[in-house]
Write a structure and sequence with these properties.
98 residues; mainly beta; 48% strand
Length: 98
């Protein structure tokens, strides 16, 4: 188990033997996949930059390093608006496809 928090860094082992991979990160308030949402990085809104989401900072043939946003993540509503939400107390799921 790891602590998921704003600004934390995580290394995920994938052992796919290639750096030609796609990475998708989901966040949820529980360990369940139900209602999990995909998170993105560095959303720019009205000239302001929020350091939100997840960013792959390093990749090798068997692992990736993931940096979580200092400001948390953007919780997108059905109407298209968003709320910046802390990652503390959340669960992340990292899907690596190679």
């Amino acid at each position: 188990s790891v602590t998921v928090a704003n600004g934390s860094t995580h290394t995920v082992t994938h052992n796919l033997g290639t750096t030609d991979v796609q990475v998708v990160v989901y966040v949820n308030s529980s360990g369940s996949d139900t209602n999990a949402q995909q998170i993105h990085s560095n959303l720019h809104v009205s000239g302001s930059q929020f350091d939100c989401g997840a960013l792959v900072t390093s990749i090798s043939s068997n692992s990736i390093e993931l940096q979580l946003g200092e400001d948390g993540y953007n919780d997108i509503s059905n109407g298209g608006g968003f709320t910046t939400t802390t990652l503390g107390g959340k669960f992340i799921k990292v899907v690596v496809i190679g």
